[in-house]
């Protein structure tokens, strides 16, 4: 964007704010945008459009799921290479100097002041916006179920990944287990806590935003070759929305039984 000014901040984008459904869909790696302040980060040609900069297909799928579930959507407007909003400020991966096998020269040797600038420009505005949306829904009596949406590569350091649909949880497994149960027969190789798990430090948003309020939550990972076009994103949303709707109903029933 040519109108960016020094000191700008980049809050999360909220869509479908008034949607009355029980879910709030979150996409932390929705964008590969590199604001002018940080230039190209010294990336080799083509890497700004690659998976290391943002999750291909994740935003389109997140939008499709939000529409089909009548859910709100919160997503990040800046590449995770500037700041990964699913990492806390002290985590090495928050401003990674290397992603997979690729060096990120613009992230090497950052001063404390430079790191703090990114925290204040990207991380804090993203999570403040998401937190405000959660608080608003709690206030009006619509406590949201948090569903984060990501995509992953078909190969990892040259090794193929058989999993197509990963379902990940942190301390609260209720929704993840329900999703895995309801995904039987959906035609996808569905695995719990694959290709990542909480042990890989990928559940920061869930820990920060959902667990303190006792909100049911889950992280979804879809292999990105399955959502490589807008048509594929829509088809995957058609496939997964009924799975999620049934899982949401199961978790809601468990909560009512506990009451």
Q: Could you name the key traits of this structure?
A:
single chain; 259 residues; alpha/beta; Aminopeptidase
Can you walk through the features of this model?
The protein is of the alpha/beta class. The protein has a single domain (13-258), classed as Zn-dependent exopeptidases (Aminopeptidase, 3-Layer(aba) Sandwich). It has five helices and eleven strands, in the order ββαβββαββββαβαβα. The chain has helices spanning 58-69, 112-139, 174-183, 204-210, 230-258; strands at 13-15, 23-27, 72-75, 98-99, 102-103, 145-152, 155-156, 159-160, 165-168, 190-192, 217-223. The chain has a seven-stranded mixed β-sheet, with helices on both faces. Strand 2, helix 1 and strand 3 (72-75) form a beta-alpha-beta unit. Helix 1 packs across helix 5 (230-258) and helix 3 (174-183) packs across helix 5. The chain is globular and about 50 Å long. The model has no long low-confidence stretch (mean pLDDT 94).
- Unreliable residue stretches: none
Distance between the termini: 50 Å
What order do the helices and strands follow?
EEHEEEHEEEEHEHEH
Q: Please give the count of helices.
A: 5
CATH architecture descriptor text? 3-Layer(aba) Sandwich
Please tell me the overall pLDDT. 94
Structural class given helices, strands, pairing? alpha/beta
In the sheet with the most strands, the strands line up as: 1-3-2-6-11-9-10
Largest sheet: 7 strands, mixed
Number of strands: 11
Within CATH, the superfamily carries the name Zn-dependent exopeptidases
């Amino acid at each position: 964007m040519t109108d960016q000014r020094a000191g700008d901040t980049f809050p999360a984008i909220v869509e479908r704010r008034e949607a009355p459904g029980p879910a709030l869909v979150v996409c932390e790696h929705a964008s590969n945008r590199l604001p002018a302040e940080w230039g190209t980060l010294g990336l080799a040609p083509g890497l700004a459009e690659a998976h290391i900069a943002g999750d291909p297909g994740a935003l389109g799928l997140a939008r499709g799921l939000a529409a089909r579930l009548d859910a709100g959507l919160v997503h990040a407007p800046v590449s995770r290479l500037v700041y990964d909003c699913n990492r806390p400020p002290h985590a090495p991966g928050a401003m990674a100097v290397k992603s997979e096998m690729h060096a990120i020269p613009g992230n090497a040797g950052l001063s404390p002041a430079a790191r703090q600038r990114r925290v204040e420009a990207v991380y804090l505005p993203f999570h403040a916006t998401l937190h405000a949306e959660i608080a608003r829904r709690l206030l009006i009596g619509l406590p949201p179920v948090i569903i984060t949406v990501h995509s992953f590569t078909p190969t990892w350091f040259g090794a193929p990944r058989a999993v197509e649909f990963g379902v990940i949880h942190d301390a609260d497994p209720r929704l993840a287990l329900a999703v895995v149960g309801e995904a039987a027969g959906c035609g996808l190789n569905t695995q719990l806590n694959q290709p990542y798990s909480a042990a890989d430090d990928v559940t920061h948003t869930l820990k920060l935003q959902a667990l303190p309020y006792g909100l049911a939550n889950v992280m979804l990972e879809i292999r990105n070759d399955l959502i490589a076009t807008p048509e594929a994103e829509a088809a995957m949303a058609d496939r997964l929305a009924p799975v999620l709707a049934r899982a949401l109903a199961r978790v809601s029933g468990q909560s009512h039984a506990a009451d």
